[in-house]
TrEMBL record:
Superkingdom: Bacteria
InterPro entries xrefs: Cupin_DUF985 (IPR009327), RmlC-like_jellyroll (IPR014710), RmlC_Cupin_sf (IPR011051), YML079W-like (IPR039935)
Organism placement in taxonomy: Bacteria, Bacillati, Bacillota, Clostridia, Eubacteriales
Coiled-coil features, chain-numbered ranges: none
Domain DUF985: residue ranges: 10-138
Organism whose genome encodes this protein: Clostridium neonatale
UniProt name for this protein: Cupin
Length: 162
């Protein structure tokens, strides 16, 4: 939790964050000078911010994504493995409360996050090999509900109805 009175607007303005297609705000701030292949960097990194009630919609990447806590309150990251197992990781600094300052979302996992507390959460996300939109897909609510009916509550919370 932030100990000072800096709010989300401060980071949105100072870090030049823009609305993200999946929800929240982001800015691609760093990328490797080296290439992984002809159209992909070795790694890329963004700032990502969610405010209370914001949702990062369930989506899937073909690369691993590391989440790093920077400021604000904790953030729940929901992940569904390729085998259908649901896990929730709490990104934050209150280790005694089950939070962790970094979380790995393995490639091929369906994942999203939600700011369920008051305030905001500012994180860093690093994708390796680097993020490209061709490897990003927001998943369909109806398809997810048919594949994973046991996770209905989470799916409804982290998707839009068609």
């Amino acid at each position: 939790m932030c100990k000072n009175k800096i709010d989300a607007k401060y980071f949105i303005d100072k870090l030049n964050l823009k609305p993200h297609i999946e929800g929240g705000y982001f800015n691609e701030c760093l990328s490797s000078e080296d290439n992984y292949n002809d159209n992909q960097k070795l790694w890329t990194s963004i700032y990502f911010l969610l405010e209370q009630g914001d949702v990062s919609r369930l989506h899937i990447l073909e690369e691993d994504e590391l989440w790093y806590y920077h400021a604000g309150n904790s953030l729940n990251i929901y992940m569904i493995s390729p085998e259908g197992k649901l896990t929730v990781s709490k990104l934050g600094l209150n280790i005694d409360n089950g939070e962790t300052p970094q979380v790995l979302v393995p490639k091929g996992y369906i994942f999203g996050s939600i700011m369920e507390e008051e305030g905001f959460c500012l994180v860093g996300n690093m994708v390796a090999p680097g993020f490209i939109y061709d490897h990003f897909k927001i998943v369909n609510q109806k398809e997810l509900l048919s594949r994973y009916p046991e996770h209905k509550e989470t799916i409804l919370k982290l998707t839009k109805s068609e």
